[in-house]
Design a protein that fits this description.
alpha+beta; single chain; 5 strands
Length: 109
């Protein structure tokens, strides 16, 4: 019984610690090639540019640009429907890599 209690307590602490790292980020879904400026590509509208940049090469990824920094997103499928839109991303940021492990993406109104 003591082992089970210790195991449950450890699991609760682990989940609590993981949730403390979850943050909310607000910005625009973009791509790692263009970042916050799609003008140099001469592809309009911006949402088309974002999608085409990501599809054109496995080198470019969907990202979130918050006006200062650009974060690569771990989820590379969901952001497609939010291309060039302002969104709220919930997830864990890995500072060293600049990657957000995405838990949820929601459109801002």
């Amino acid at each position: 019984m003591k082992t089970l209690t210790t195991l449950i307590f450890s699991a609760v602490l682990f989940v609590a610690a993981a949730n403390q790292n979850t943050r909310t980020f607000v910005g625009v879904i973009t791509d790692t090639m263009c970042g916050g400026n799609h003008g140099h590509m001469n592809v309009t509208p911006d949402e088309k540019c974002v999608r085409e940049c990501v599809k054109s090469s496995s080198k470019y990824k969907y990202a979130l640009h918050d006006g200062r920094r650009m974060y690569t997103l771990s989820d590379q499928q969901t952001p497609e429907k939010f291309a060039a839109q302002k969104v709220k991303v919930t997830g864990v940021l890995y500072e060293k890599t600049g990657i957000i492990k995405v838990e949820k993406i929601e459109a801002m109104k």
